[in-house]
């Protein structure tokens, strides 16, 4: 039963994180979008951590069920590597790309959100696009 609960938790981490990661990656690597969002470093980092942690948890469950190797050791090391090495590296690459991309755009001041939990800035190709996004938000 505990393995099913762990798999559900892993699936939740993967699903929630992938959704946010895809949005950040699309903004960073798409060709000339009309507008895009630049999330804060902590948000991008957490977005990468969630699915990676979920995959480590799935590997842990599979190893536990199959009685293969030391699953706790793999889980602990895998989680630390994902959280402290891989996620920060992916975050740095994504954030750098987003900041570089923002140079050719204007910042939509009225659409930005600064808070402790979820901060981001919106950039658009023109002031008219900012206005359109603001009207769409209302």
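^ Assign residues to that structure.
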């Amino acid at each position: 039963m505990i393995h099913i609960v762990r798999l559900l938790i892993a699936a939740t981490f993967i699903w929630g994180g992938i959704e946010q990661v895809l949005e950040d990656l699309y903004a960073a690597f798409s060709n000339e979008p009309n507008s895009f969002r630049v999330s804060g470093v902590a948000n991008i980092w957490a977005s990468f951590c969630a699915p990676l942690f979920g995959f480590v948890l799935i590997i842990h469950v599979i190893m536990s069920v199959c009685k293969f190797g030391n699953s706790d050791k793999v889980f602990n090391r895998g989680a630390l590597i994902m959280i402290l090495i891989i996620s920060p590296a992916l975050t740095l690459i994504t954030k750098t790309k987003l900041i570089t991309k923002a140079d050719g755009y204007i910042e939509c001041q009225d659409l930005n959100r600064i808070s402790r939990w979820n901060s981001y800035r919106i950039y658009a190709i023109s002031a008219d696009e900012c206005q359109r996004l603001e009207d769409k938000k209302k």
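The first strand starts at residue 35 and ends at 39.
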